[in-house]
Design goal:
- With about 180 residues, the chain is mainly α.
- Among the domains are: about 70 residues; about 25 residues, no CATH class.
- The chain has nine helices and no strands.
- Helix 5 runs antiparallel to helix 6.
- The longest helix is centred in the middle third of the chain and has 31 residues.
- The termini are far apart.
- The relative contact order is 0.06.
Length: about 180
């Protein structure tokens, strides 16, 4: 608890009740102000979650601490997506989750490669792991990015068994074009 009191970011906690007040007090309702107060409140909340998972990881061990950190690291996307789905914005939730998946893959793999290169000089990777990472960048977003009702473009590869055309049961953008 003392550590939370010493952190300099905690002054942003003022924006959490302020966001609630802006939302619920009719005279104060301003969407732009509500947005920025909510953003600043989320910053301090995510710092608290990160600090709590670090402290808990120190007690339960690095394996479970890493699992908790990975789980809570995507909590804002989960909350945002659930709120978007509840309000009928399923495509927005899909786009947000797709962006989170792609950015997590790129940031984690890129940071690991940079740190490993700085620490060990030349680094060797197994071909299977590199193929897995590359395939996850290609395959994960495709179901979320495409909509069945309105295909963006016709498949131009002219292959009879195009994987994207088979998945959607309609013409689509082909990965090979």
């Amino acid at each position: 608890m003392r550590e939370l009191a010493r952190q300099k970011i905690n002054w942003l906690a003022v924006f959490i009740p302020l966001a609630f007040a802006i939302y619920y007090v009719p005279a104060w309702q301003n969407e732009l102000l509500l947005f920025w107060c909510s953003v600043l409140g989320l910053i301090v909340t995510s710092a608290w979650i990160g600090s709590a998972t670090e402290q808990l990881a120190g007690r339960i061990g690095p394996t479970w601490g890493g699992m908790m950190n990975a789980g809570f690291g995507n909590l804002p996307e989960l909350i945002f997506g659930l709120i978007a789905i509840r309000n009928g914005l399923g495509s927005l939730a899909k786009a947000a989750w797709t962006g989170a998946i792609v950015s997590n893959i790129l940031v984690v793999n890129g940071a690991a490669m940079v740190v490993a290169g700085l620490r060990f000089g030349r680094v060797r990777f197994e071909m299977e792991r590199a193929q897995d990472a590359g395939a996850s960048l290609i395959s994960r977003p495709s179901p979320y990015c495409c909509r069945r009702s309105t295909p963006p473009l016709a498949c131009s590869c002219r292959r009879r068994r195009c994987p994207l055309t088979m998945w959607r049961k309609s013409p689509s953008v082909c990965a090979s074009s």
